[in-house]
Amino acid sequence: SVDRDIVEESLHMALPQKTMSQKVKGVYTIPWEGFEDRNIGHILKMFCKDGAPSRVSSKRGLEMFPPQDMDKNKLQHPPADEAQVWWIGHSTFLVQIRGLNILTDPVFSDRASPVSFVGPHRFAPLPITLKDLLATLDNQLHIVTISHNHYDHLDAHAVQEIASNTTATFYVPLGLKDWFDKQYRPQVVELDWWQEAVYSPNIPPTGEPTQPITDCTFTITGLPCQHWSMRSSFDRNKSLWCAFLYTVTCPANTTVTTTTTDESTNEKPLELESVDPNPATPKTPIGALGETENSEVEVFKMFHSGDTGYCNVFKEVGAHCGPIDLAFIPIGAYEPRWFMKPQHVDPEEAVLMHLDMKVKHSIGMHWGTFPLTIERPTEPPEKLEEACKKHGVPTGDFIAMKHGGALTYPLKLPWTA
Fold this sequence. Notes:
7-stranded mixed sheet, 11 helices
Protein backbone atom coordinates (compact mmCIF):
# COMPACT_ATOMS: atom_id res chain seq x y z
CA SER A 1 0.00 0.00 0.00
CA VAL A 2 1.08 3.58 -0.64
CA ASP A 3 2.43 5.38 2.41
CA ARG A 4 -0.19 7.98 3.42
CA ASP A 5 2.47 10.46 4.59
CA ILE A 6 4.10 10.35 1.15
CA VAL A 7 0.77 11.00 -0.57
CA GLU A 8 -0.01 13.94 1.73
CA GLU A 9 3.48 15.39 1.22
CA SER A 10 3.08 15.11 -2.57
CA LEU A 11 -0.27 16.87 -2.45
CA HIS A 12 1.21 19.62 -0.29
CA MET A 13 4.14 20.11 -2.67
CA ALA A 14 1.68 20.48 -5.57
CA LEU A 15 -0.05 23.45 -3.94
CA PRO A 16 1.05 26.95 -4.95
CA GLN A 17 3.09 28.88 -2.42
CA LYS A 18 1.07 31.22 -0.21
CA THR A 19 1.66 34.92 -0.85
CA MET A 20 2.42 36.62 2.44
CA SER A 21 1.88 40.27 3.34
CA GLN A 22 4.79 42.66 2.93
CA LYS A 23 5.63 45.75 4.98
CA VAL A 24 8.35 48.13 3.84
CA LYS A 25 9.43 51.18 5.89
CA GLY A 26 6.26 51.08 7.96
CA VAL A 27 3.75 50.70 5.14
CA TYR A 28 2.16 47.62 3.55
CA THR A 29 2.75 47.02 -0.13
CA ILE A 30 1.37 44.72 -2.80
CA PRO A 31 3.96 41.90 -2.90
CA TRP A 32 3.47 40.83 -6.52
CA GLU A 33 4.28 42.31 -9.89
CA GLY A 34 1.77 44.06 -12.11
CA PHE A 35 0.05 46.24 -9.52
CA GLU A 36 -0.06 49.93 -10.42
CA ASP A 37 -0.81 52.19 -7.48
CA ARG A 38 -2.90 55.31 -7.89
CA ASN A 39 -2.00 58.81 -6.67
CA ILE A 40 -3.46 62.31 -6.68
CA GLY A 41 -2.31 62.82 -10.28
CA HIS A 42 -4.35 59.84 -11.44
CA ILE A 43 -7.37 61.11 -9.49
CA LEU A 44 -7.19 64.55 -11.11
CA LYS A 45 -6.83 62.94 -14.53
CA MET A 46 -9.91 60.79 -13.87
CA PHE A 47 -12.06 63.78 -12.92
CA CYS A 48 -10.89 65.76 -15.95
CA LYS A 49 -11.17 62.88 -18.44
CA ASP A 50 -14.14 60.85 -17.16
CA GLY A 51 -15.96 63.16 -14.78
CA ALA A 52 -17.10 62.67 -11.20
CA PRO A 53 -19.45 59.90 -10.09
CA SER A 54 -23.03 60.76 -10.96
CA ARG A 55 -25.06 62.04 -8.06
CA VAL A 56 -28.11 59.87 -7.43
CA SER A 57 -30.99 61.63 -5.70
CA SER A 58 -32.89 59.91 -2.91
CA LYS A 59 -36.00 59.96 -5.12
CA ARG A 60 -34.16 58.27 -7.99
CA GLY A 61 -32.64 55.79 -5.55
CA LEU A 62 -36.10 54.82 -4.30
CA GLU A 63 -37.22 54.25 -7.89
CA MET A 64 -34.25 52.02 -8.70
CA PHE A 65 -34.14 50.23 -5.36
CA PRO A 66 -37.59 50.18 -3.72
CA PRO A 67 -37.28 49.85 0.06
CA GLN A 68 -37.67 46.37 1.46
CA ASP A 69 -37.71 46.01 5.23
CA MET A 70 -35.97 42.99 6.70
CA ASP A 71 -38.32 40.36 8.11
CA LYS A 72 -37.86 40.58 11.88
CA ASN A 73 -39.55 37.24 12.47
CA LYS A 74 -36.98 35.57 10.21
CA LEU A 75 -34.19 37.45 11.96
CA GLN A 76 -35.35 36.21 15.35
CA HIS A 77 -35.99 32.63 14.22
CA PRO A 78 -33.29 31.62 11.74
CA PRO A 79 -33.28 28.02 10.50
CA ALA A 80 -31.27 25.77 12.80
CA ASP A 81 -29.54 23.70 10.15
CA GLU A 82 -29.09 26.20 7.30
CA ALA A 83 -27.22 29.45 6.86
CA GLN A 84 -29.51 32.47 6.56
CA VAL A 85 -27.90 35.31 4.60
CA TRP A 86 -29.08 38.93 4.45
CA TRP A 87 -27.73 41.67 2.19
CA ILE A 88 -28.04 45.00 4.01
CA GLY A 89 -26.24 46.91 1.27
CA HIS A 90 -22.79 47.56 -0.23
CA SER A 91 -20.42 45.07 1.48
CA THR A 92 -22.56 44.57 4.58
CA PHE A 93 -24.04 41.11 5.09
CA LEU A 94 -25.58 39.46 8.12
CA VAL A 95 -25.07 35.71 8.19
CA GLN A 96 -26.95 33.64 10.76
CA ILE A 97 -25.48 30.18 11.00
CA ARG A 98 -25.42 27.48 13.65
CA GLY A 99 -26.58 29.85 16.36
CA LEU A 100 -24.16 32.71 15.65
CA ASN A 101 -24.71 36.09 14.00
CA ILE A 102 -21.88 37.33 11.76
CA LEU A 103 -21.74 40.86 10.33
CA THR A 104 -19.37 41.88 7.53
CA ASP A 105 -18.04 45.42 6.93
CA PRO A 106 -20.95 47.04 8.82
CA VAL A 107 -21.75 50.44 7.26
CA PHE A 108 -25.06 52.00 8.30
CA SER A 109 -24.35 55.73 8.00
CA ASP A 110 -25.94 57.90 5.33
CA ARG A 111 -22.56 58.84 3.90
CA ALA A 112 -19.36 56.89 3.28
CA SER A 113 -17.35 59.83 4.53
CA PRO A 114 -15.50 61.17 7.58
CA VAL A 115 -18.12 63.95 7.83
CA SER A 116 -21.92 63.96 7.67
CA PHE A 117 -22.39 66.84 5.21
CA VAL A 118 -20.28 65.82 2.21
CA GLY A 119 -19.13 62.61 0.54
CA PRO A 120 -20.88 59.67 -1.19
CA HIS A 121 -24.50 59.65 -0.01
CA ARG A 122 -26.46 56.43 0.37
CA PHE A 123 -29.09 56.38 -2.39
CA ALA A 124 -30.56 52.93 -1.69
CA PRO A 125 -32.51 53.12 1.58
CA LEU A 126 -31.35 50.98 4.48
CA PRO A 127 -33.58 47.92 4.97
CA ILE A 128 -33.02 48.22 8.73
CA THR A 129 -31.17 50.59 11.03
CA LEU A 130 -28.35 49.21 13.12
CA LYS A 131 -30.26 50.10 16.29
CA ASP A 132 -33.29 48.09 15.13
CA LEU A 133 -31.11 45.21 13.95
CA LEU A 134 -29.36 44.86 17.30
CA ALA A 135 -32.64 45.18 19.16
CA THR A 136 -34.22 42.48 16.97
CA LEU A 137 -31.27 40.20 17.64
CA ASP A 138 -31.46 41.02 21.37
CA ASN A 139 -27.90 42.38 20.98
CA GLN A 140 -26.71 38.89 20.08
CA LEU A 141 -24.01 39.80 17.59
CA HIS A 142 -20.98 37.55 17.80
CA ILE A 143 -18.50 38.07 14.96
CA VAL A 144 -17.76 41.28 13.02
CA THR A 145 -15.15 41.41 10.26
CA ILE A 146 -13.63 44.59 8.85
CA SER A 147 -11.78 44.14 5.56
CA HIS A 148 -9.97 47.53 5.55
CA ASN A 149 -10.29 51.06 6.82
CA HIS A 150 -11.94 52.92 3.91
CA TYR A 151 -15.07 54.80 4.92
CA ASP A 152 -17.40 52.64 2.86
CA HIS A 153 -16.18 49.60 4.84
CA LEU A 154 -15.33 50.94 8.29
CA ASP A 155 -18.12 53.06 9.80
CA ALA A 156 -17.10 54.65 13.11
CA HIS A 157 -20.71 55.18 14.23
CA ALA A 158 -21.54 51.53 13.58
CA VAL A 159 -18.46 50.36 15.49
CA GLN A 160 -19.40 52.55 18.44
CA GLU A 161 -22.96 51.22 18.56
CA ILE A 162 -21.88 47.59 18.24
CA ALA A 163 -19.14 47.98 20.85
CA SER A 164 -21.54 49.70 23.27
CA ASN A 165 -24.36 47.17 22.99
CA THR A 166 -22.90 43.76 22.21
CA THR A 167 -20.05 41.45 23.16
CA ALA A 168 -19.05 40.92 19.52
CA THR A 169 -15.46 40.20 18.60
CA PHE A 170 -14.04 42.26 15.72
CA TYR A 171 -11.60 40.61 13.32
CA VAL A 172 -9.48 43.16 11.49
CA PRO A 173 -6.30 43.33 9.35
CA LEU A 174 -2.89 43.99 10.88
CA GLY A 175 -2.35 47.56 12.03
CA LEU A 176 -6.02 48.41 12.55
CA LYS A 177 -6.43 47.38 16.20
CA ASP A 178 -4.94 50.65 17.47
CA TRP A 179 -7.77 52.61 15.80
CA PHE A 180 -10.32 50.55 17.74
CA ASP A 181 -8.41 50.70 21.03
CA LYS A 182 -8.11 54.49 20.96
CA GLN A 183 -11.85 55.02 20.57
CA TYR A 184 -14.11 52.11 21.33
CA ARG A 185 -12.14 49.29 22.99
CA PRO A 186 -14.19 46.29 21.85
CA GLN A 187 -12.70 42.81 21.70
CA VAL A 188 -10.43 42.94 18.62
CA VAL A 189 -8.33 40.27 16.92
CA GLU A 190 -5.80 41.32 14.27
CA LEU A 191 -5.07 38.95 11.41
CA ASP A 192 -2.29 38.75 8.84
CA TRP A 193 -2.79 37.06 5.48
CA TRP A 194 -3.20 33.30 6.00
CA GLN A 195 -3.43 33.74 9.77
CA GLU A 196 -6.42 32.17 11.46
CA ALA A 197 -8.20 32.61 14.78
CA VAL A 198 -10.85 30.49 16.46
CA TYR A 199 -13.82 32.48 17.73
CA SER A 200 -14.26 32.30 21.48
CA PRO A 201 -17.47 33.72 22.99
CA ASN A 202 -16.84 36.92 24.91
CA ILE A 203 -18.53 36.78 28.32
CA PRO A 204 -20.12 40.09 29.37
CA PRO A 205 -19.29 41.77 32.73
CA THR A 206 -22.36 40.19 34.39
CA GLY A 207 -20.70 36.81 34.05
CA GLU A 208 -23.80 35.40 32.42
CA PRO A 209 -23.00 33.94 28.99
CA THR A 210 -25.38 35.31 26.37
CA GLN A 211 -24.08 33.14 23.58
CA PRO A 212 -26.19 30.48 21.87
CA ILE A 213 -25.46 26.85 22.59
CA THR A 214 -23.44 25.25 19.82
CA ASP A 215 -20.91 22.46 19.49
CA CYS A 216 -19.51 24.02 16.32
CA THR A 217 -16.12 25.69 15.91
CA PHE A 218 -15.89 28.97 14.01
CA THR A 219 -12.51 29.81 12.48
CA ILE A 220 -11.78 33.15 10.78
CA THR A 221 -8.80 33.34 8.42
CA GLY A 222 -7.29 36.48 6.93
CA LEU A 223 -6.54 36.08 3.22
CA PRO A 224 -4.70 38.18 0.61
CA CYS A 225 -6.39 40.54 -1.81
CA GLN A 226 -5.29 43.45 -3.98
CA HIS A 227 -6.21 46.80 -2.49
CA TRP A 228 -4.87 49.54 -0.19
CA SER A 229 -5.78 51.35 3.01
CA MET A 230 -6.19 54.98 4.03
CA ARG A 231 -8.24 56.69 6.70
CA SER A 232 -6.55 60.09 6.55
CA SER A 233 -3.81 61.88 4.65
CA PHE A 234 -1.21 60.55 7.11
CA ASP A 235 -1.90 56.81 7.33
CA ARG A 236 -1.89 55.50 3.77
CA ASN A 237 -1.17 51.76 3.80
CA LYS A 238 -0.12 51.76 7.46
CA SER A 239 -2.71 49.05 8.08
CA LEU A 240 -3.25 45.93 6.01
CA TRP A 241 -6.31 44.96 3.93
CA CYS A 242 -7.80 41.47 4.01
CA ALA A 243 -10.29 39.09 2.57
CA PHE A 244 -11.76 36.62 5.07
CA LEU A 245 -12.55 32.92 5.12
CA TYR A 246 -15.07 31.72 7.71
CA THR A 247 -14.97 27.98 8.39
CA VAL A 248 -17.61 26.28 10.50
CA THR A 249 -16.85 22.74 11.68
CA CYS A 250 -19.32 20.65 13.64
CA PRO A 251 -19.43 17.13 15.03
CA ALA A 252 -21.77 14.79 13.19
CA ASN A 253 -25.42 15.11 14.26
CA THR A 254 -24.75 18.36 16.10
CA THR A 255 -27.59 19.79 18.12
CA VAL A 256 -27.80 23.56 17.83
CA THR A 257 -30.08 25.41 20.20
CA THR A 258 -30.86 29.10 20.05
CA THR A 259 -33.13 30.66 22.61
CA THR A 260 -35.52 33.33 21.44
CA THR A 261 -38.77 34.78 22.68
CA ASP A 262 -41.86 35.04 20.50
CA GLU A 263 -43.32 38.35 21.62
CA SER A 264 -46.44 37.90 19.51
CA THR A 265 -47.61 34.91 21.54
CA ASN A 266 -45.79 35.44 24.85
CA GLU A 267 -44.95 31.77 24.79
CA LYS A 268 -41.84 30.29 26.38
CA PRO A 269 -38.61 30.57 24.38
CA LEU A 270 -38.42 28.48 21.24
CA GLU A 271 -35.75 25.84 20.91
CA LEU A 272 -34.60 25.34 17.36
CA GLU A 273 -32.74 22.05 16.99
CA SER A 274 -30.87 20.33 14.21
CA VAL A 275 -30.83 16.62 14.96
CA ASP A 276 -30.76 13.44 12.95
CA PRO A 277 -34.21 11.81 13.09
CA ASN A 278 -32.72 8.52 11.91
CA PRO A 279 -29.35 7.72 13.53
CA ALA A 280 -28.87 4.85 11.11
CA THR A 281 -28.71 7.35 8.25
CA PRO A 282 -26.20 10.08 9.16
CA LYS A 283 -27.40 13.53 8.18
CA THR A 284 -25.18 15.57 5.86
CA PRO A 285 -24.88 19.09 7.29
CA ILE A 286 -25.01 22.11 5.00
CA GLY A 287 -22.14 22.31 2.60
CA ALA A 288 -20.51 19.21 4.08
CA LEU A 289 -17.13 18.42 2.60
CA GLY A 290 -16.52 15.12 4.30
CA GLU A 291 -15.59 13.69 7.67
CA THR A 292 -12.14 14.32 9.13
CA GLU A 293 -9.97 12.11 11.29
CA ASN A 294 -11.28 13.68 14.52
CA SER A 295 -14.88 12.90 13.51
CA GLU A 296 -15.68 16.54 12.84
CA VAL A 297 -17.41 17.51 9.61
CA GLU A 298 -16.52 20.67 7.73
CA VAL A 299 -19.94 22.15 7.54
CA PHE A 300 -19.53 25.48 5.81
CA LYS A 301 -16.88 27.64 4.16
CA MET A 302 -17.74 31.27 3.46
CA PHE A 303 -15.55 33.94 1.83
CA HIS A 304 -15.76 37.76 1.89
CA SER A 305 -13.31 39.50 -0.42
CA GLY A 306 -13.49 43.05 0.88
CA ASP A 307 -12.34 45.38 -1.91
CA THR A 308 -9.96 43.93 -4.47
CA GLY A 309 -8.57 44.05 -7.95
CA TYR A 310 -8.20 40.81 -9.88
CA CYS A 311 -4.94 38.93 -9.35
CA ASN A 312 -3.48 35.43 -9.09
CA VAL A 313 -3.87 35.16 -5.32
CA PHE A 314 -7.41 33.90 -5.83
CA LYS A 315 -6.00 30.81 -7.50
CA GLU A 316 -3.94 30.35 -4.33
CA VAL A 317 -7.10 30.71 -2.23
CA GLY A 318 -8.86 28.14 -4.40
CA ALA A 319 -5.95 25.71 -4.10
CA HIS A 320 -5.54 26.02 -0.33
CA CYS A 321 -9.11 26.72 0.80
CA GLY A 322 -11.45 25.50 -1.96
CA PRO A 323 -13.99 24.42 -2.64
CA ILE A 324 -15.79 27.31 -0.93
CA ASP A 325 -19.52 27.02 -0.30
CA LEU A 326 -20.51 30.68 -0.45
CA ALA A 327 -18.60 33.83 -1.46
CA PHE A 328 -19.36 37.53 -1.32
CA ILE A 329 -17.55 39.12 -4.28
CA PRO A 330 -17.60 42.77 -5.48
CA ILE A 331 -19.33 43.51 -8.78
CA GLY A 332 -19.58 47.33 -8.67
CA ALA A 333 -17.50 50.53 -8.57
CA TYR A 334 -15.33 49.55 -11.55
CA GLU A 335 -15.44 52.42 -14.08
CA PRO A 336 -13.34 53.89 -15.59
CA ARG A 337 -11.30 50.72 -15.98
CA TRP A 338 -7.96 52.46 -16.59
CA PHE A 339 -8.26 53.91 -13.08
CA MET A 340 -10.21 51.31 -11.13
CA LYS A 341 -8.78 48.05 -12.47
CA PRO A 342 -5.94 47.69 -9.91
CA GLN A 343 -8.27 48.12 -6.94
CA HIS A 344 -11.80 47.03 -7.97
CA VAL A 345 -12.83 44.03 -10.06
CA ASP A 346 -15.53 44.40 -12.69
CA PRO A 347 -18.32 41.79 -13.05
CA GLU A 348 -16.32 39.64 -15.45
CA GLU A 349 -13.31 39.58 -13.14
CA ALA A 350 -15.68 38.76 -10.27
CA VAL A 351 -16.76 35.67 -12.22
CA LEU A 352 -13.09 34.74 -12.70
CA MET A 353 -12.61 35.01 -8.94
CA HIS A 354 -15.60 32.72 -8.45
CA LEU A 355 -14.01 30.15 -10.76
CA ASP A 356 -10.46 30.55 -9.40
CA MET A 357 -11.59 29.90 -5.84
CA LYS A 358 -13.79 26.93 -6.74
CA VAL A 359 -16.84 28.61 -5.25
CA LYS A 360 -20.15 26.77 -5.33
CA HIS A 361 -22.36 29.88 -5.00
CA SER A 362 -21.50 33.58 -4.98
CA ILE A 363 -23.36 36.79 -4.19
CA GLY A 364 -22.41 40.13 -5.72
CA MET A 365 -21.69 43.05 -3.40
CA HIS A 366 -20.21 46.57 -3.45
CA TRP A 367 -22.85 47.95 -5.80
CA GLY A 368 -26.19 49.78 -5.80
CA THR A 369 -25.67 51.65 -2.52
CA PHE A 370 -23.19 54.56 -2.77
CA PRO A 371 -22.29 56.61 -5.90
CA LEU A 372 -18.58 55.78 -5.98
CA THR A 373 -17.87 55.54 -9.71
CA ILE A 374 -19.36 56.44 -13.08
CA GLU A 375 -21.16 53.26 -14.21
CA ARG A 376 -24.97 53.19 -13.91
CA PRO A 377 -26.05 52.03 -10.43
CA THR A 378 -28.10 49.20 -11.95
CA GLU A 379 -25.46 48.09 -14.46
CA PRO A 380 -23.40 45.61 -12.36
CA PRO A 381 -26.04 42.82 -12.19
CA GLU A 382 -26.59 43.13 -15.94
CA LYS A 383 -22.88 42.77 -16.64
CA LEU A 384 -22.68 39.93 -14.12
CA GLU A 385 -25.32 37.96 -16.00
CA GLU A 386 -23.44 38.49 -19.28
CA ALA A 387 -20.14 37.38 -17.70
CA CYS A 388 -21.68 34.25 -16.21
CA LYS A 389 -22.99 33.23 -19.63
CA LYS A 390 -19.63 33.99 -21.26
CA HIS A 391 -17.68 31.83 -18.79
CA GLY A 392 -20.21 29.01 -18.45
CA VAL A 393 -21.27 29.70 -14.87
CA PRO A 394 -24.73 28.12 -14.43
CA THR A 395 -27.73 30.35 -13.76
CA GLY A 396 -28.09 30.80 -10.02
CA ASP A 397 -24.49 30.04 -9.10
CA PHE A 398 -23.61 33.76 -8.97
CA ILE A 399 -26.41 36.19 -8.17
CA ALA A 400 -27.14 39.74 -7.06
CA MET A 401 -29.59 40.18 -4.19
CA LYS A 402 -32.08 42.88 -3.33
CA HIS A 403 -31.34 45.18 -0.41
CA GLY A 404 -32.89 43.59 2.67
CA GLY A 405 -33.29 40.28 0.87
CA ALA A 406 -32.69 36.97 2.63
CA LEU A 407 -31.79 33.54 1.37
CA THR A 408 -30.87 30.26 2.96
CA TYR A 409 -27.99 28.04 1.94
CA PRO A 410 -28.14 25.60 0.31
CA LEU A 411 -31.00 26.54 -1.99
CA LYS A 412 -32.69 24.66 -4.75
CA LEU A 413 -32.07 26.41 -8.05
CA PRO A 414 -33.07 28.91 -9.14
CA TRP A 415 -32.07 31.06 -6.18
CA THR A 416 -34.59 33.61 -4.99
CA ALA A 417 -33.73 36.63 -2.90
